[in-house]
Design a protein that fits this description.
It is a single chain. With 476 residues, the protein is an alpha/beta fold. The chain folds into four domains: 178 residues, 3-Layer(bba) Sandwich (FAD/NAD(P)-binding domain), CATH 3.50.50; 110 residues, FAD/NAD(P)-binding domain, CATH 3.50.50; 72 residues, Enolase-like, domain 1; 64 residues, Orthogonal Bundle (Arc Repressor Mutant, subunit A), CATH 1.10.10.1100. Strands 5-4-3-9-21 form a five-stranded parallel sheet. The structure holds flavin-adenine dinucleotide (FAD). The site of flavin-adenine dinucleotide has 39 residues, from helix 1, strand 4, helix 2, helix 5 and helix 8.
Length: 476
């Protein structure tokens, strides 16, 4: 902004201090963007990798491993961080955000990165007389939720998880791993009903049971009583704690009250800008772009990076994301590319319930339009590459991709442009050029999302060391 010939830094206020906001601020800092940045986060602690909360619950990661930045990082980069402060109102005329402590801050540009809130299902008996959740009933979205659930799990013997989607399976497995007998109740006809069809869901269900977690599909959790959770099919499940994993909805009330255009999320255009106020932007789980809300970290990060470019005056745009959803749960490997159940096309599928594996590709006009891999993800890199690039495939290729012997396709032989980290969108070639894993993490951000690519990244870095790719990179 120029005032009387002098360049004045604009004030950029980011509401929310989650995964999208953190990526946006990192990108702005790296670009030395001309803004005085303030980040408002209502959680009392620094930003963290939300995806890994269930891994922390099952003690596969230490809590301190998931912090994204200490408050000092913000000081060092001249970013003002307000923790434990909730943005309670936005006055768009005065361009001012009101805070929960009665204070406020002015903005020239405002970013909503408020994420999502858990959906609470209509189960009788889950709320106390003050309208809050009963102490033995838990949501699982925040670090505070994790803390409460971990404490409850340390004494509980039995748990019921309501919801058999990605989150319900993650939490259910985590509770089982820490020794709580866990049962999952899913009102839909199958597990992961939004992503999987019958054959895949049957293989998955069998696998979940094999791991010791009971599953009730097509059953509604109806009432929580002193005897446990009553289902509408007449079952009563004895339980010490209940976890609600019934999806989430965009945290867009603040934006709605500010008079912005909100359908489910804050409606933004391809420049991630509100369609009625060009000083206001939205990214991540609270943003609705081309009628879609993604709810995954990959798109949230793509949006953050695009918005950083937009805010720096570049001619950048976001046209949507190709989603690869990974189930990150102990003993369960699932990857879903796009929307295999609703995408038209020819279906090529291979199931081996005995081995707990299932693979499916939906091929339309010769390209991979969607897919599912369950139980054996050894070919995820090469399949994701075809999906991302929309490579034209010959008639026999989809079958070859699914049937290929996993031993014949080691990670180290992935082509350079095969995607290895689906969260951060990093290719095998970029990782090969790194000297060690820490350089790969620092320069590409691979492994910093769901972390399921960590093994592949280590193998690729090692292979690069042996075949001289590092030197080639140094010479570039
Ligand atoms: C347990 C769990 C597992 C997941 N696993 C995966 C996975 O494996 N893969 C995947 O891709 N995605 C996964 N997700 C989804 C992923 O975490 C989200 O897509 C991602 O966090 C979105 O980032 P965000 O910044 O939009 O929202 P968030 O990370 O939710 O951050 C929003 C922040 O804004 C704060 N906030 C809200 N309102 C206000 C306000 N008025 N004032 C101040 N602060 C406010 C919130 O408290 C929160 O800290 C998972 C989510 C959960 C909960």
């Amino acid at each position: 902004m120029t005032v009387r010939g002098r360049t004045v830094r604009e004030r950029l206020v980011v509401v929310g201090n989650g995964m999208a906001a953190t990526r946006l601020v990192e990108d702005l800092v790296r670009r030395e963007a001309p803004y005085d940045i303030t980040v408002i986060g209502d959680e009392p602690h620094p930003a963290y990798n939300r995806i890994l909360l269930s891994a922390v619950l099952e003690e596969a990661h230490r809590p301190e491993d998931i912090w994204l930045h200490e408050p000092r990082w913000y000081d060092d980069h001249g970013v003002r961080l307000l923790l434990g402060q909730r943005a309670v109102r936005v006055d768009r005329e005065r361009r001012r955000v009101g805070l929960s402590d009665g204070g406020g801050c002015e903005y020239d540009r405002l970013v909503f990165a408020t994420g999502a809130r858990p959906v609470l299902p209509p189960i009788r008996g889950i709320v106390d007389e003050f309208g809050g959740l009963r102490p033995d009933v838990h949501a699982f979205r925040s670090y505070a939720d994790y803390g409460r659930l971990r404490e409850a799990a340390s004494t509980a013997r039995r748990a019921v998880v309501v919801g058999g989607g990605l989150l319900g399976l993650q939490v259910g497995r985590a509770l089982s791993v820490v020794g709580v007998d866990t049962e999952i109740v899913e009102v839909g006809p199958m597990l992961m009903a939004r992503q999987l069809g019958g054959s895949a869901a049957r293989v998955l269900e069998r696998q979940v049971r094999r791991l010791g977690t009971e599953v009730y599909t097509g059953a509604r959790a109806a009432r929580l009583t002193a005897d446990g959770m009553l289902l509408d099919n007449g079952y009563a499940l004895t339980t010490d704690l209940v976890v609600l994993a019934c999806g989430s909805r965009p945290a867009s009330r603040l934006a709605e009250r500010a008079g912005l255009f909100v359908r489910r999320g804050v409606v933004v255009d391809d420049r991630l800008t509100s369609i009625i106020d060009d000083r206001v932007h939205a990214i991540g789980d609270c943003a609705e772009h081309r009628a879609r809300i993604h709810g995954f970290v990959g798109p949230a990060w793509e949006q953050a990076t695009t918005l950083a470019r937009v805010l720096c005056g570049e001619d950048a745009g976001y046209s949507g994301s190709r989603i690869v959803a990974r189930l990150r749960a102990n003993g369960l490997d699932v990857a879903v590319l796009g929307e295999p159940e609703t995408t038209d096309g020819e279906v090529v599928e291979v199931a081996n319930p005995l081995a707990g594996t299932y693979r499916k590709l939906v091929v339309k006009d010769g390209v991979v339009a969607a897919g599912v891999l369950l139980g054996d993800l050894s070919r995820i890199g090469v399949i994701t590459q075809h999906y991302d690039r929309q490579t034209a495939l010959g008639a026999a290729e989809p079958g070859g991709l699914l049937l290929g012997d996993s031993a014949a396709a080691p990670v180290t032989e992935l082509p350079d442009d095969a995607q290895v980290c689906v969260c951060a969108g990093v290719s095998a070639g970029r990782i090969r050029r790194c000297r060690d894993v820490s350089e790969a993490v620092a320069t590409t951000r691979a492994t910093t999302g769901c972390g399921s690519c960590a093994g592949s990244v280590a193998q690729l870095v090692d292979a690069g060391a042996n075949d001289g790719s590092h030197n080639a990179a140094a010479a570039v």
